[in-house]
Every structure is written in structure tokens, then in C-alpha cells.
């Protein structure tokens, strides 16, 4: 018993150190965003300083970064609403399929996801220009859905394969058709997996930089592209960039707090079988 307690303590200590190590960049960005440049770039770093929220006010009010946040949320929300339902339906079919082509389809999807994004940026830009869709929400949404759909399908399939096929058969015996089996029986079981898939889909689209840089303009510019404009020779730009980085994290952090219970259940879904 004593050995088990010691092991748990060491594991907790290792996780604590790992968490603290990962929080250092976030804490550093938060401190830089409320420091004057003269304090932000001192060596050794200044611990005690007079905080200022000048750069937060400047970047969100004067430079109207909230408009870029709205663009990011519109694109990310649309991607989730399109990608997750399509991915769930495809994943359900692939998880229940017994044909010899299933493995080939899954491998093909994985291959598409492995394509370098820079390789696909130019074709999307050419198609967007030909269709007069550059600097529109539609081209960004379609591009991100196309790129991230294989990931969504693979992730949802990992949850669906853990659901016994006997549930489907029992529902059909009770008179359910295929759609009722999926909607009334399977989806409630994999609800935590849907939350996890939606979260990852949201993160991938919310943080997208390359396609946003190529396909958006002044009307649909997203936060990652807007923040990248700062950080040049003027050292005050780094404080502005840090203030923007802190702001861009807040919606995701709030969303994760709201779905934390479902997220934990989803990440451990199917981990224990018995």
C-alpha cells in the first residue's frame, strides 16, 4: 500500500511539473501583455512591475480586433456544424461496414490528411479566384472542412467501433430503421465522443493560419492572421501581440470549461472494457 501511495505521489509530481512547464509560455504571454516594453525586455526578467492594460485596450478597441474574433468564430462554428455531422455519418458507416474496401477507404482518408497544407493552398487559391470567392467566408469554410474531414472521420470512428454492434441489432429487432438506430440509439451513446470531435474540429479551424493567410482579406481576416502582423521592429508590437494571444485563447478556454465534463468522459470513452 505504501509503495502504491509513493507511485501515485511521484506520478502526481511528474504531472505537476509537466503542467507547469506547459503553462510557462501562457504565463509569459500574459505578463508581457500587461508590461511596458521597458519591463518586458529587461534581462533578467522583471518580477515586480506596474501593470498596464493599455495594450489590451489598444488591440481590442482601437484596432478593432473583435471584428477578427467574430470572423474566426463564424468560420470555426460553420466548420464544426458541417464537419462533425458529415464525419459522424461517414464514421458510423465505416465502423459498421464489413466489406474489404473499408480499410482502403480509411487509408485513403489518412493519406489525404497527410498532404502538406502548403501543397493545397495554391489550388484552393486558384479555385477561389476563379469562382470569385477570395475574401469570403465560404471559401475558408469549404477549405478547412475538406482538409480536416479525414481527421473528423477517423476520430469519430474510434469512438463508434467501441459501441457493440448488438445495440444496432437489438434496435432493429424492436422495429427501428437504419436512421432511427443511428439517431436514437448510437448518438446518445457516443455523445462524449461528439464533444471531443467538435472541440478538436473547433481548435483546428480556429487556429488555422496558412489557409486564412492565403484565402482571406480585409473583410474576413481571422485572429491568427491579424496577430501575425505584429512583432516587427517596434518592440511595443510584441506587447500588442501578447495581448492578442491572450485574447485569442479566452473563447477556447471558456468553451473547454463549459464542456469539461463531457470532454473527460469522451477522452476516456472505451478505455475500460469488461
How does this structure look, described?
This protein has 274 residues and is mostly helical. The chain has a domain at 64-229: MetI-like (MetI-like fold, Orthogonal Bundle). It is built from 14 helices and no strands. The chain has helices at 2-33, 37-40, 54-62, 65-96, 102-114, 117-130, 137-160, 165-173, 178-189, 191-206, 210-215, 223-227, 236-258, 260-267. Helix 4 (65-96) crosses helix 10 (191-206) and helix 5 (102-114) packs across helix 7. The longest helix is centred in the first third of the chain and has 32 residues, at 2-33. It starts with a helix and ends in a 7-residue tail after the last helix. Mean pLDDT is 83; it is low at 270-274.
Amino acid at each position: 500500500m505504501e509503495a502504491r501511495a509513493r507511485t501515485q505521489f511521484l506520478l502526481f509530481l511528474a504531472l505537476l511539473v509537466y503542467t507547469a512547464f506547459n503553462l510557462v509560455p501562457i504565463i509569459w504571454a500574459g505578463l508581457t501583455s500587461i508590461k511596458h516594453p521597458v519591463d518586458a525586455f529587461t534581462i533578467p526578467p522583471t518580477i515586480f512591475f506596474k501593470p498596464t492594460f493599455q495594450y489590451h485596450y489598444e488591440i481590442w478597441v482601437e484596432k478593432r480586433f473583435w471584428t477578427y474574433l467574430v470572423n474566426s468564430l463564424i468560420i470555426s462554428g460553420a466548420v464544426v456544424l458541417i464537419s462533425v455531422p458529415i464525419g459522424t455519418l461517414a464514421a458510423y458507416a465505416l465502423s459498421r461496414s464489413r466489406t474489404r474496401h473499408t480499410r482502403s477507404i480509411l487509408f485513403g482518408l489518412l493519406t489525404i490528411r497527410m498532404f502538406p497544407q502548403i501543397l493545397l493552398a495554391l489550388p484552393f487559391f486558384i479555385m477561389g479566384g476563379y469562382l470569385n470567392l477570395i475574401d469570403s467566408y465560404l471559401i475558408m469554410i469549404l477549405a478547412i472542412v475538406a482538409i480536416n474531414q479525414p481527421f473528423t472521420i477517423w476520430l469519430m470512428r474510434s469512438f463508434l467501433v467501441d459501441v457493440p454492434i448488438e445495440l444496432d441489432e437489438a434496435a432493429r429487432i424492436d422495429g427501428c430503421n437504419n436512421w432511427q438506430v443511428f439517431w436514437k440509439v448510437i448518438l446518445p451513446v457516443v455523445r462524449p465522443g461528439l464533444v471531443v470531435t467538435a472541440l478538436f474540429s473547433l481548435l483546428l479551424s480556429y487556429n488555422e493560419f496558412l489557409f486564412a493567410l492565403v484565402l482571406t482579406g480585409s473583410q474576413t481576416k481571422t485572429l491568427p492572421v491579424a496577430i501575425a502582423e505584429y512583432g516587427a521592429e517596434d518592440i511595443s508590437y510584441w506587447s500588442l501581440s501578447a495581448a492578442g494571444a491572450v485574447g485569442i485563447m479566452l473563447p477556447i478556454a471558456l468553451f473547454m470549461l463549459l464542456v469539461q465534463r463531457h470532454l473527460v468522459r469522451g477522452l476516456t470513452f472505451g478505455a475500460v472494457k469488461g
